[in-house]
Amino acid sequence: MSFKGLKPILYGGREVWPLVEGGKGVAVSNHASSGAWAAAGGIGTVSAVNADSYDPQGKIVPQIYDALTRKERHDQLVQFGIRGGVEQVQRAHDIAGGNGAININVLWEMGGAQQILEGVLERTRGLVTGVTCGAGMPYKLSEIAARFNVHYLPIISSARAFRALWKRAYHKVAELMAAVVYEDPWLAGGHNGLSNAEDPRVPQDPYPRVKALRDTMRAEGIADSVPIVMAGGVWFLRDWEDWIDNPELGQIVFQFGTRPLLTQESPIPQPWKDHLRTLEPGDVLLHRFSPTGFYSSAVRNPFLRNLEERSDRQIPYSRVEAGEHTVQLDVGVKGKNFWVVPADRERARGWANAGFTSALRTPDDTVIFVTPEERELIRKDQAECMGCLSHCGFSAWKDHDDFSTGYLADPRSFCIQKTLQEIAHGGPIDENLMFAGHAAFNFKTDPFYSNNFTPTVKQLVDRILTGD
Q1: DSSP-assigned letter for residue 205
Q2: CB-based contacts of 340, cutoff 8 Å, min separation 6
Q3: Among 132, 179, 176, 168, which Cα is nearest to 150's?
Q4: Domain 3-291+440-465 in CATH: superfamily?
Q5: Which of 174, 125, 178 has its CA nearest to residue 151?
Q6: The Cα angle at residue 63 between residues 188 and 386, in degrees rounded to 5
Q7: Any bridge partners for residue 327, and if so which?
């Protein structure tokens, strides 16, 4: 018996539980976890963002970018992405054994997104049921889905964003839109779709936002049988009891992104799994350091705290004496054309005395102060950019036209591809970005995980279906 009579839904021509494994990029939602989720009767999601591929012995092929130019390294990245995505889908399909369904997830803002998505779908025909896609406005998603005859599930965080996508493109391929994923910008892990009109410090109740989305869908003539997937902050189904069979909301499906991290099939390294059990409320930070320019949510570990401190050691400057900028900066910079407020010069001198002797310019006419070692690492990472995003604030790369954003590279950010590859493949958890949703603190108190119990995916899905 499932919680509150939760019933299977029809998806891709078969009955599946209305439970989706959230896609987590860069080798985290891989064939093992998503195949097992589908085998348990749900919708598993293979991430097609920098997915792993394997050598003939079954070992993961390291993604080494040895080409001389960024453009050539970007081309290598696209080839790695297609090969890895195909291998992950094929393996997940085998594990699922004809049960549930396999989706793939891509970020529209990743470098070469369209090429990679088309390359994977071309070589996995009949294996993929649907494509989830967010991080940007993926207008072309419906047209790509039509070409390969797969369903598509746009990821949005407001009714307004969905309406724009529908009006411009999706209404032409209405029959293949299997669901709309509402990813809550204050609760979900990874990149979040906060708009400029929304305050990152003031979370909004998801219910009215999802009701507004359903109202928009109804106004466009979309049937209530097209589900809305609630993504972000979902832990116990009993907390969402009033969402199930609710005529105001129509069909609701629930997405679990964080809980599948702590399963036997989850490919993340053991120290990451262990750390998840220690988190307290507030340990996941909604921040804006990502080179995508989007807000994102990650564990507030030393890596993230270092980025916070780096941005705190920041002062504005002018190239000429103007307004309150009446003194010249005399630490961290070469040349005399850095005019600052007297109090800021004193702060800068204090940072320099503490070892932060290098000043780096940002695109916002400010400088930040870092150690010489940090400066070298930032410069090295910027120089080695492999074009993993369509637009990267950290390296000023763009994946089309002249391959430059036209802005100064931003040292307040970081190389996201490097750090996510490192943490997924055993790098130090304190020195890398660790994405997680804001409900991750439940691992510590949920009795299901007591005595260091790590469930299989099947045990987790069975547990979720009880309401817990």
Answers
A1: -
A2: 315, 316, 317, 318, 325, 327, 328, 329, 348
A3: 176
A4: Aldolase class I (3.20.20.70)
A5: 178
A6: 75
A7: 340
Closest CA to 272 of 303, 246, 314: 303
- Long-range CB pairs of 375-380 (<8 Å, 24+ gap) are 378/411
CA distance 378 to 370: 10
Structure letter (DSSP) for residue 253:
E
Q: Amino acid letter at 392?
A: C
Residue type, 341: V
What dihedral do alpha carbons 133, 435, 46, 72 form, nearest 10°? 80
Q: Where are the alpha helices (DSSP H) in 159-253?
A: 159-168, 206-219
- Rounded Cα distance between 196 and 385, Å, is 28
Q: How far is residue 145's CA from residue 151's CA, in Å, rounded to a whole number?
A: 6
Indicate where the chain has its CATH 3.20.20.70 domain(s). Answer: 3-291+440-465
Residue 378 near residue 411, CB atoms below 8 Å: yes
Owner of token pair 């604030």:
393
Taking CA atoms, 253 is separated from 133, 180, 183, 402, in Å, by: 16, 10, 12, 42
pLDDT by residue, tens only, the chain of 468 residues: 678 879 999 999 999 999 999 999 889 999 999 999 999 999 999 999 999 999 999 999 999 999 999 999 999 999 999 999 999 999 999 999 999 999 999 999 999 999 999 999 999 999 999 999 988 788 899 999 999 999 999 999 999 999 999 999 999 999 999 999 999 999 999 888 888 788 888 999 999 999 999 999 999 999 999 999 999 999 999 999 999 999 999 999 999 999 999 999 999 999 999 999 999 999 999 999 999 988 999 999 999 999 999 999 999 999 999 999 999 999 999 887 999 999 999 999 999 999 999 999 999 999 999 999 999 999 999 999 999 999 999 999 999 899 999 999 999 999 999 999 999 999 999 999 999 999 999 999 999 999 999 999 999 999 999 999
CB 46 within 8 A of CB 31: yes
Instruction: Record the pTM.
Output: 0.94
SS3 state at 152:
strand
And the tokens for 148? Answer: 């390969």
